[in-house]
Amino acid sequence: MYKKLIMSCMAVAALAAFALPATASAVTTTDATGDVKVGASITTKNIGDLFFMRTDGVTPEVTCTTVHATGTVVQNSGGVSIDQFTTFKVSSTGAVSPHNGLNECTAGIGNAWVTVVNLPLTLTTIAGTDNFNITGKEGKKVRFIIGSTVAGECEYESTNAAITGAFTTAATTVLSINNTQAGSGSKLIRGGFFCPTSGQLKGSSYIQTTNGEEIASS
Length: 218
What we know:
Blueprint: E1 30-31, E2 34-35, E3 41-53, E4 60-64, E5 66-77, E6 80-91, E7 106-107, E8 112-116, E9 121-125, E10 131-135, E11 143-148, E12 152-158, E13 163-167, E14 175-177, H1 181-184, E15 185-190, E16 198-209
Antiparallel strand pairs: 1-2, 3-4, 3-5, 3-16, 4-7, 5-6, 6-8, 6-9, 8-11, 9-10, 10-13, 11-12, 12-15, 13-14, 14-16, 15-16
């Protein structure tokens, strides 16, 4: 098991939105042999479902049961951890979509497939806090598509420069997206009449090494 926190994940998952007190003065990823090296492989596993919520933050528009991302450690020094995720797959129990080869999620607009448009996603911890930011390729806003037979392709972009979240400093570190318009608000930038015009994300996950060890903090 890791002994200290590696701050990574997206993603693209929270059972409830919350903010934690700024107690972490530095973030470093370590294991029994010392600091985890830049380039180390990591993967995510969601806790509960990932939701695309209406702007009330309560009513789900889309519900996905599985989120799996893979990536590498980019920085692990100077009180900041940066992780980059080159794959981000979201699925559920619906039929296999021809658009991404994954089982579709359930949605009010009919079963839907979900694809992140501008990979890689980068998760960066904020020094001196228990918070993180997620950005898309080249530090731009995160963009994703929710598509269905009923609505067609609905493409969204994060309202703010980054999707924000908070992490717990416990035996197993849980990273949660802030389920608010300021934290994970997303607006429709392409799509038809049946596409929701806006929403926000809700979900949590934890990070593992590729051999299945959960990341912990102390």
